[in-house]
Amino acid sequence: MAIVLDFLKKEGLRLVNIGAEDIIDRRIKAILGLMWTLILGYQIKDVSGTSRKDILDWLQKIGLNVKDLTTDWLDGKLICQLVN
Fold it and tell me: CB–CB of 64/79 below 8 Å?
């Protein structure tokens, strides 16, 4: 796992508060943070250069009242609205 995380750092991804032991010990919060970093670092940039602001704009355009991509999702209501 340490080799993979080192590779991601060399790729320019900013890994915060995660180490190989977090993945091995199945620390969900750290793993979800890593997944979000991977999405932002690869998928979103690769598709169209989309940024956090572009995602917020899109969510607001489809009628979701989102101001923060982290805290606004904590109660689960927005993800339910998005799925519907």
Answer: no
**Number of C-beta neighbours around residue 34 at 10 A:** 21
Label residue 17 exposed, middle or buried (CB < 10 Å: 0-12, 13-18, 19+): exposed
| Residue 42 reports pLDDT greater than 80 | no
Q: What is the pLDDT of residues 49-70, one digit of tens each?
A: 567 788 888 888 988 888 887 7
Helical residues (DSSP H) of the chain, grouped into ranges = 2-10, 20-24, 28-38, 45-48, 52-61, 77-83
Gap between the Cα atoms of 64 and 81, Å rounded: 8
Same domain, 1 and 39: yes
Asked if residue 19 and residue 60 are part of one domain, the reply reads no
What range does the domain containing 30 cover?
Answer: 1-49
The pTM assigned to this predicted structure is 0.51
Task: Please compute the mean of the pLDDT values over residues 32-46 and round it to a whole number.
Answer: 78
